[in-house]
Amino acid sequence: MRFWLLKSEPDVFGYADLARAGREPWNGVRNYQARNFLRQMTAGDLCLFYHSGTRPPGVAGVAQVVRAAYPDNLQFDPASSYADPRATPEAPRWSMVDVAPLLALPRLITLDELRTLPAWAASPLLARGSRLSVLPVDRAQVQSVLQAAGTTLPALDEPAAPAL
DNA sequence: GCCAACGTTGGC
DNA sequence: GCCAACGTTGGC
Predict the structure, then answer these.
(1) Which of A19, A62, A64, A77 is 20 to 30 A from A50 in CA distance terms?
(2) What's the CA–C1' distance between A31 and C12, in Å?
């Protein structure tokens, strides 16, 4: 299992919207680095759901990848602002995954608070001018956020897949 | 292949 | 609303 952070503007689509929807294609990512991370995701990976463009920004919940990367539908939709005329169904350029809600944090863990957590010291999220909307995190970072929020995820504390 | 111009992101 | 940082575009 790997761990990721997904940014979204809550005015557009926040964690509460995901909780309501039950499942959602994470489409519209139009940055190659972010796209390449999407392509590394597999079902079962956990994603911190980060609210950006709001005050304060921070992690609002945890989502789970429920479908690995497949072609982003919006790239083929001329009516979409995410349309990409260079993309064809035979040669798609952009990918999306499907995510589902897993846990709403009891309280937002703000960007300011992330800056105080040792596990986050080296995260690109905290780097000046960071704009990446999909980025890898690690188990310790996820755990530190859950701990700060006063909650846990049983799946996190289990050892990696037990050998049979 | 360089680089200036431009558009976008995102914290403040 | 401002502005710094960054990625992309397109002329050359």
Answers:
(1) A77
(2) 26
